[in-house]
Specification:
The structure holds 2 protein chains of 2 kinds. Chain A is of the alpha/beta class. Chain A contains 15 helices and 18 strands. Chain A has a domain of 270 residues: TIM Barrel (Alpha-Beta Barrel), CATH 3.20.20. In chain A, helix 5 packs parallel to helix 6, helix 6 packs across helix 7 and helix 9 runs parallel beside helix 10. The termini of chain A are far apart. Chain B has 2 domains: 83 residues, Methionine synthase domain (Methyltransferase, Methionine Synthase (B12-binding Domains), Chain A, domain 1); 123 residues, Cobalamin-binding domain (Rossmann fold, 3-Layer(aba) Sandwich). The relative contact order of chain B is 0.11. The longest helix of chain B is centred in the middle third of the chain and has 24 residues. The chains are: A alpha/beta, B alpha/beta. Chains A and B meet through helix 2 of A and helix 4 and helix 7 of B.
């Protein structure tokens, strides 16, 4: 389906319009048309549907949507358009697997289907939740010390030598390579230096910094993964395409990234699930992803654990896992923070829903909406791994029952979730081990969930 | 058509987000000699308030909000010149400068804030994205803004929010403007640390904060 030069050609020759025109006269009306034509409807009562025909129908809708809308280039104010044939070719040529990691840790990040008993690819960590330099190594070591983990995200640094890491400045560059060194050190301490890091780079805002810090002498490996993000919604810019160009020329793993927002330009759950699905098509047509990372969230609650987001993503996962082979990380957010029961309930609901829907991977959800500096610990990663493996033993119907029960436990608090603890409050910063209180809470919740039938 | 019927039509037109009907119904209002300020307050603004409320309750989403705002602007194309010719102006709840800071091109959250502010009767200056810190300050001085609202959606662009406040202090202008911050990675703790006047976790929170601050000023 062409290469990046073909994408660039479309970016400079496609029909010209303002961004607002694209949003108001193309994106929104076409999305609404396709939702109506295909009868996509939110099923509030079943956050984890089991309807393969509806899933395939949603995928067909996404193909049509992609054909009608295209992708807007912010730098040229032109729309990159793709024919139905081109979209379907991209589907056919999708990567199927992503080779990640080195040496003993080399792995094949592949696909799953709905109700698949195969374990998902186990991905943990967070880049957005910035960490203090002093804790970051311990945190990454903690992730990598979970034996089942297949890949990690490493934290971004908020400050360097006391200075804020400002976008586009040399501080950002120095912070990026420092963050990378910290991450690699954490992997080494855990005895797993070849474990793939899938979120290069979490710190920099601009391509020039990301590309500079990706030079091999600083430690990146082509079998890691780089996130190359779309802009909301269905837009791209040259900054992202420059990253893609560099990575493709090197042969490194490109992660096509997108963050659909329920309640934003796509409207409610029906438009949201269509957009979640369509982004995987965009990721192949434009960003040429070896894998995809989709981080869906609710516009008001800034988390992925609301009933409508869980439903929308479950549907999109079913649609895509059945129809296009792109290894995908569906990256969730929880409202509650570390060391809270609510975080564990939200994580359980999300991972039960998405794993049984056929998600190729699980990812430990960002705690506390990813706004709390140092608000992430390896304990959340451990729980996510346990949940992912347990969820693979279930099917969608069973997961639906569990998710409904879990929603009852936390849904009423979604507007005011507990912020939880920082790493240094619930972990021993010297040993890198969780404090007793957190261990107790972890076991208490696991026992509770086992008691209702979750097969840990 | 009766006066109240036309005003009700203006409300409906905004709720439906129909720009053409908004222009047409505004012309009808003028033809029926309805005071254009009344048409704004009892027609257009009422419609915006309905959509704003639905949005806050989760019954409407950004597309409905944007379409209502566009219909409002379309109606104002007809009514504003008449209001101006009468040497009057639409009452404003206050003036707010809203923009995304330097190095950051995310705008959806900012756009939601702007639209809800407009539904609540505020005059908003949309600074756009990737706005240099000094430009915020210069524009605030030029437009005599009450509030400067800064959006940052990445942890590496958050420092620019602090930079705006620091520059205001250096120029001894800090007391002239309220400064509020928001965006994905932003938190109350960050707002407190940098000396902002407030933090809005959601767009609705931001608008409530603006209302509160302006009431305090007056």
């Amino acid at each position: 389906m062409g290469n990046l030069m073909d994408v660039c050609e479309r970016a400079i020759t496609g029909p010209v319009m303002s961004e607002k025109e694209f949003d108001m006269k193309v994106f929104i009306p076409r999305l609404n048309e396709v939702v109506k034509t295909y009868g996509i409807r939110y099923d509030r009562e079943n956050p984890v549907p089991s309807d393969d025909r509806a899933a395939d129908h949603l995928f067909d809708a996404a193909v049509e949507f992609m054909t009608k809308v295209g992708v807007y280039c912010l730098d040229t104010n032109r729309v990159m358009q793709f024919s139905r044939e081109e979209v379907l070719t991209a589907v056919k040529e999708a990567p199927k697997v992503c080779y990640a990691g080195e040496g003993k840790e080399a792995g094949i990040f592949g696909m799953r289907k709905p109700d698949d008993p195969k374990n998902p690819w186990l991905h943990v960590g967070s880049g957005i939740v910035s960490s203090s330099e002093e804790y970051a190594t311990n945190i990454v070591e903690g992730y990598a010390s979970i034996p089942e983990v297949n890949s990690v995200n490493i934290p971004g640094l908020a400050t360097l030598r006391g200075l804020p890491v400002a976008a586009g400045s040399p501080i950002e560059f120095y912070a990026t390579i420092r963050g990378l060194r910290i991450g690699l050190e954490g992997l080494r301490r855990a005895g797993r230096p070849g474990l793939p890091i899938m979120n290069h780079h979490p710190t920099p805002a601009v391509a020039v910094t990301a590309i500079a810090a990706s030079a091999p002498q600083f430690g990146c490996r082509p079998t890691d993964g780089w996130l190359c993000g779309a802009m909301a919604e269905m837009k791209i810019n040259f900054d992202t395409l420059n990253r893609v160009a560099y990575l493709l020329a090197w042969g490194a793993n490109v992660g096509a990234e997108s963050g659909p927002m329920l309640g934003g330009l796509c409207g409610g759950p029906a438009g949201f699930t269509l957009l979640c699905t369509a982004y995987l098509l965009m990721g192949q047509l434009v960003q040429k992803g070896d894998f995809h990372l989709n981080f869906p969230f609710h516009f008001k609650h800034i988390c992925s654990s609301t009933r409508d987001v869980i439903w929308g993503v479950s549907m999109a996962i079913q649609a895509t896992s059945r129809n296009i082979q792109v290894p995908t990380i569906w990256a969730p957010y929880c409202g509650a923070g570390p060391n809270t029961k609510m975080y564990f309930y939200e994580t359980a609901a999300i991972l039960l829903a998405w794993t049984t829907s056929g998600a190729p991977s699980i990812m430990s959800p960002h705690p506390a909406k990813a706004v709390k500096v140092d608000g992430i610990t390896p304990m959340e990663a451990q729980f996510a791994v346990d949940m992912g493996i347990a969820a693979a033993k279930l099917n969608r119907a069973k997961a639906n029952d569990f998710v409904i029960r879990l929603l009852e436990k936390y849904e009423s608090q979604i507007g005011t979730p507990p912020e939880g603890s920082r790493y240094q409050d619930c972990f021993d910063v010297t040993t890198g081990k969780p404090k007793e209180e957190y261990v107790r809470l972890y076991h208490e919740v696991k026992d509770e969930l086992s008691g209702i039938g979750i097969p840990f | 058509m009766e006066r109240q019927q036309i005003l009700d039509l203006l409300v409906t037109t905004i709720v439906e987000g129909d720009q053409e009907k908004a222009r047409e119904n505004s012309k009808q209002a003028l033809l029926k000699q309805i005071d254009p300020l009344v048409a704004v307050e009892e027609g257009l603004s009422k419609g915006m308030a309905i959509v704003g409320k639905r949005f806050e309750q989760g019954d409407a989403f950004l597309p409905e909000l944007l379409m209502a705002a566009d219909a409002f602007k379309a109606a104002m194309e007809i009514l504003k010149p008449v209001i101006a010719s009468q040497k009057r102006e639409v009452a404003s709840a206050g003036k707010v400068l809203v923009g995304t800071v330097k190095g950051d091109i995310h705008h959806i959250g900012k756009d939601i804030v702007i639209t809800i502010l407009e539904t609540r009767g505020f005059t908003v200056v949309d600074m756009g994205v990737d706005v240099p810190s000094l430009t915020f300050i210069e524009e605030a001085q030029k437009t005599k803004a009450d509030v400067i609202a800064l959006s940052a959606v990445m942890s590496t662009t958050m420092p620019a929010q602090k930079e705006v406040i620091d520059i205001l202090k250096e120029k001894k202008l800090r007391d002239k403007y309220f400064v509020i911050v928001g965006g994905g990675p932003v938190s109350q703790r960050w707002a407190d640390n940098i000396g902002a006047d407030g933090y809005g976790q959601t767009a609705v929170d931001a608008v409530e904060l603006v209302s509160h601050l302006i009431r305090k000023k007056r």
